[in-house]
Amino acid sequence: MINKLNLLLFFIFINSLSFSQEIKDFKIDSILSLLTLKEKVSMCHAQSQFSSPGVPRLGIPELWMSDGPHGIRAEINWSNWDYSGWTNDYITAFPALTCLAATFNPFLSNQYGTSIGEEARYRKKDILLGPGVNIYRTPLNGRNFEYMGEDPYLASIMVVPYIKGVQTNGVAACVKHFALNNQELWRNHINVQVSDRALNEIYLPAFKAAVKLGETWSVMGAYNQFRGQHCSHHELLLNKILKTDWNFDGVVISDWGGTHNTKEAALNGLDIEMGSPIDTKTPTRQAFDANFLGSSFLELVKSREIDERVLDDKVRRILRLMMRTTLDLGRPLGKINNVEHSHVARQVATEGIVLLKNRADFFPLNPDKKLTIALIGENAIKSMTTGGGSSELKANYEVSPLEGLKKRFKNASIIFSKGYTSENSDQDPKLLISDAIEKATQADVVLFVGGLNKNRGQDCEAEDRKELKLPYNQDYLIGELQKVNPNIGVVLVGGNAVSMPWILKVKAVLQTWYLGSEAGNAIADIISGDS
Questions:
Q1: Which residues pair with 132 in a beta bridge?
Q2: Which residues are catalytic?
Q3: Do 235 and 201 contact (CB within 8 A), yes or no?
Q4: In terms of pTM, does the model score above 0.90?
């Protein structure tokens, strides 16, 4: 029987030594030798919706993970997807990664990563499930807003400082979704086909930079198949490219429920399987050891059908990740919802906003001038931190465009009209349009704040957009507004490209993305010319 006090002293002693690779490897091997077969297998699969187990008898801690790439998600229940209802899990909502990429500013990317890493650490998370660097294959992909755009070079430059910033906090970045996760429709079984050249020149460079330059500590496998094999246990992607060619020494984590076969998961490079298994005959959740890398994996190792060295490689990687996170006695404690994080969020938001058109110097508007501004559009008041799937956030605060503009344009008279609705409600669309037109006739300037949102079928996980045009009859509304007041500028919210049949009729267009907690302030900064 191992004396727990001696074991604790051993850990303290090893932590006090110089952390050369040899010392790290010695420490990992010493721990590995103490583990039973069952304990090693247990470390390779989930124990709850967002954690994998440690080994309590040896003082090896659990690993806790959290969505997402632009803010730490609210707490989820142990064994289902319902929210836990905590009152202390509010966070700073940072702009979505499309906005971060649009800044073209690696220094800001590092500040962003550092800040979100601090919030993850404060919330006692060990792995941040981000950043996302899948390349836009289609502008209809519902999850494009979570990624760093369609340019492999830009994504490669921006992802590295983000990772470095996150990991200075003793929190692992988990770069996702490796690879070719370029649509949400049928994502669990679609079989993606691309050439070797397209794979290496377009879809892999950002991941390669994340591993080789960013030295990310974890990578998430994708849901989809590539050339007939699921990406969360893919011989070419994981064993050959990631772990051999790129010398990745971290942990591969499956997307939740993205594992499909025990032998493939064991042999093709997956280290931790996440997601709670579902009984195929009845829609009920099973115990987590029913995962493919659970009891069935254990039996295959026991029978020597799978070599124990395969299991040991996984556990070594997991222990190495723990050395960098949960077993690092010197990692900082983290910070959350502070002024510095709000400042970073606002700076990223303002630098990421893109001016697509500005005829006759429509922007900036003079905030000291007495104007009547008709602010039209549901997106001027709609929360954009909620919804969207796994990246939805429980923001400590969120400044709407209406609030931000009212705060900055104190000398102006701002009259608001919703104009359209994205909700199932008893509001008459014709009455909303007529009210918007009436407000526009009273104004010196019309600002239409529209675009997309995070409803299903828009910018949202698990479903793609059905068309390129603006939803909820916005194109028609913009045309009608222009007829009664040609002094109109359009402010587009969203993470995807849209068609603009009205582009020649309006004077200005801003692309503002999803800007997080500081959305309204950042939009006001740009419209007023402060930034």
A1: 176
A2: 255
A3: no
A4: yes
